[in-house]
Amino acid sequence: MLKNRHALRKKEAKDILEKLNEMLGCEIEGDVETADYNDKKLIFINGKLYGFFIEDEPFLNVEGLKQFRATKRFVTVDDGAIKFILNGADVMTPGIVDADEKIKKEDIVWVRDERGLPLAVGKALMDGEEMIKAKKGKAVENLHRIGDALWKLSKE
């Protein structure tokens, strides 16, 4: 159930969109609203649920990443890793085939398949370069994925 849905002031909306554009390397324009859902603060762009806040940082959800075609902060996984990630597993380094080398540990990142389709959003547990080189260990903590409650809400 959504609570406190309201439009943001132009300056607040502009700040959020600029932050997303800079962070993810995509062009996003439009009206911005926020709402509370369970323990999350959601971001609506032009009336559609396209993002949420993670530790007070705005970030696109899977649908938003698909819509606005982000080009930065990506982690690419092989097909073998997809079903585990969609079941909520964290991203392990053996499944990673590529990553944005500018990713720093603790950054919020998005996970995509080799065709570029967004699968999940998570928190980097290591730098981007390390993700590519490492042979074992967790690379990304899974925070949101296709099929979870937030994804289902964005499809309504």
Walk me through the structure.
The protein starts with a strand and ends with a helix. The radius of gyration is 15 Å and the shape is globular. A hairpin with a 2-residue loop joins β4 and β5. It contains 5 helices and 11 strands. Strands 7-11-10-9-6-8 form a 6-stranded mixed β-sheet. A 5-stranded antiparallel β-sheet has the order 1-2-3-4-5, with helices on both faces. By secondary structure, the protein is α+β, with helices and mostly antiparallel strands. Helices cover 28% and strands 38% of the residues.
Search tags:
156 residues; alpha+beta; 6-stranded mixed sheet; 5-stranded antiparallel sheet; 5 helices; globular
List the helices and strands and how they pair.
Elements lengths: L1 E6 L2 H15 L7 E6 L2 E6 L2 E7 L2 E4 L1 H7 L5 E4 L1 H8 L4 E2 L3 E4 L8 E5 L5 E7 L3 H6 L4 E8 L3 H7 L1
Parallel strand pairs: 6-9
Antiparallel strand pairs: 1-2, 2-3, 3-4, 4-5, 6-8, 7-11, 9-10, 10-11
Structural class of the helix and strand makeup?
Answer: alpha+beta
The strand line-up of the biggest sheet is 7-11-10-9-6-8
- Number of helical regions: 5
The chain-level mean pLDDT equals 96
Largest pleated sheet: 6 strands, mixed
Shape verdict: globular
Spell the H/E element sequence.
EHEEEEHEHEEEEHEH
* Intertermini distance: 12 Å
Tell me the helix content: 25-40%
